[in-house]
Design goal:
By secondary structure, the protein is an alpha+beta fold. 38% of the residues lie in helices and 20% in strands. InterPro entries: ATPase_NBD, FGGY_C, FGGY_Carb_Kinase, FGGY_N, Rhamnulokinase.
Length: 504
């Protein structure tokens, strides 16, 4: 394992860019500065994202999130002397807010983990077969995709009263600027976009009774999204004008733009609550084999396609830690990871893509039950549960990288792990071992970096395509390389155990 040492970044010559990065458990505002080919990033404000259950429905506390954004922009202004070069917003995908005819919000957005979409996939399949839906949109089946949320909401008073639908980052941008738009990379997660035309799939919408007129016009990464309103400037203490730029507003689109790859022969794993593992392509893969492998074709920066599989990700570990903390026992991650590193490798593994793990609650118990169902020993303690989770994630990463390579024809020499999981050295090493490929870990803040780079290019502060933007990242970000070790046959046997069959 070796570490690259970034060169010193010179003092910036202009005001910094603010990246608003909203995740499923927290939001933050980062300041990115560029000068003479260098790039620096620092966090100026972080705030929690706590969903709220009310009336039997799980909601996002969207006004608390917006207040966090305002507080973050105020902190950014203090750190930058009141001047920002621009603002960009990225967030998780699929969820939305509904507006009435006057632009007022019709209730808190519903959380994608809410049960309202239970059984909706079967209803949709009666109108449009899974094969037809995939051929039209190229999107992996996930029960909470926007299309299923909208079908679930049909006939509700809110949807009936709605005159506009804004995805979460577009809703934040609207409150900041007064202007409405639908950013394309996030729109591609709705299962209503044709990835070949990069436009709405009117046939899908018509068949399912979805009114595409609810969506404001599409805009792409780098397009202007307005300027901060006078009342926002007053609230944050910023000096205007401050442009807001549409970035890859799906956080994974920004994260993939922030992958420091040297060429196209790479796979990426954007880690956090979810692991999104795949390759970057010029065109979608829409065949039946791709659909059955549960791969998705989401749109990326500069006309790219993010061909990937959604994996449950560090959600499994986060939920275990939350459960243990609620029980009053030790739940600090560092000691648990150290103990997990000493635990027996691949003793018990689970399918990290199993929908069984989507809902919150009792995660250690559910992991043990999954081990029992597949005839494996249950984890005996917390360290073994953590090792089970990390081995299982590495196996899921292996399967996604191998399948993406096979289905797309893309040659893969290196796996890049970006996002929060880049800090987890055990997970990175296990992924290298499982894939039999070197893993380059970092940057952990790839989404914010990709956000800043798209803004900076739109402003003329940097030039070039993704290759040039990624070269800048390699020059200024600390990366860690993990070489593969161990026996590939052991990983193949563990993968077969999950599948309940012999062979790999």
């Amino acid at each position: 394992m070796s570490e690259s040492v970034p060169r010193p970044v010179p003092e910036p010559t202009g005001p910094p860019f603010a990246a608003v990065d909203l995740g499923a458990s927290s939001g933050r505002v980062m300041l990115g500065s560029l000068a003479d080919g260098g790039l620096s990033l620092r966090e100026v404000h972080r705030f929690p994202n706590r969903p709220v259950r009310a009336g039997g429905t799980l909601h996002w506390d969207i006004l608390a999130l917006y207040q966090g954004v305002l507080d973050g922009l105020r902190a950014a202004g203090r750190a930058a002397g009141g001047r920002l070069a621009g603002v960009g917003i990225d967030s998780w995908a699929v969820d939305y807010g509904l507006l009435d005819g006057s632009g007022g919000l019709l209730g808190n957005p519903v959380h994608y983990r809410d049960a309202r979409t239970d059984g909706v996939g079967e209803r949709v399949a009666e109108l449009l077969s899974p094969a037809e839906l995939y051929a039209a949109t190229g999107l992996q089946y996930l029960p909470f995709n926007t299309v299923y949320q909208l079908v679930a909401a049909q006939g509700s008073p809110q949807l009936s009263a709605a005159r506009r639908l804004l995805l979460i980052p577009d809703l934040m941008a609207y409150w900041l600027t007064g202007e409405q738009g639908t950013e394309l990379t996030n729109a591609s997660t709705t299962q209503l976009i044709d990835p070949r035309t990069r436009d709405w799939s009117s046939g899908v919408a018509r068949t399912l009774g979805i009114d595409l007129g609810l969506f404001p016009p599409l805009r792409g990464p780098g397009d202007p999204a307005g300027r901060l309103l006078p009342e926002v400037l007053a609230e944050t203490g910023l000096t205007g004008p401050v442009p807001v730029t549409a970035v890859g507003s799906h956080d994974t689109a920004s994260a993939v733009a922030g992958v420091p790859a040297a060429d196209e022969r790479f796979a990426y794993i954007a880690t956090g609550t979810w692991s999104l593992a795949g390759v970057e392509l010029d065109a979608p893969v829409l065949g039946e084999e791709s659909r059955r492998a549960n791969f998705t074709n989401e749109l990326g920066v500069d006309g790219t396609v993010r061909y990937l599989r959604n994996i449950m990700g560090l959600w499994l570990l986060q939920e275990c830690l939350r459960e243990w903390a609620a029980d009053g026992g030790p739940s600090e991650l560092g000691p648990l990871l150290a103990a997990a590193g000493r635990a027996t490798p691949l003793r018990s593994v689970v399918d990290a893509g199993d929908p069984e793990f989507i809902a919150p609650g009792r995660m250690p118990e559910r992991i043990a039950a999954a081990c029992r169902r597949t005839g494996q020993p249950e984890p005996r303690d917390r360290a073994e549960t953590v090792r089970c989770v990390l081995d299982s994630l590495a196996l899921a990463h292996r399967a996604a990288v191998f399948d993406a390579r096979r289905l797309s024809g893309r040659v893969v020499d290196t796996v890049h792990i970006v996002g929060g999981g880049a800090h987890n050295e055990l997970l990175c090493q296990l992924t290298a071992d499982a894939c039999g490929l070197p893993v380059v870990a970092g940057p952990a803040e790839a989404a914010a970096l990709g956000n800043v780079l798209v803004q900076a290019r739109a402003a003329g502060a940097v030039t070039g395509g993704l290759a040039e933007l990624r070269a800048l990242l390699r020059a200024s970000q600390r990366l860690r390389r993990h070489e593969p070790s161990g026996d590939q046959a052991a990983w193949a046997e563990a993968a077969a155990r999950i599948a309940g069959r012999e062979g790999s």
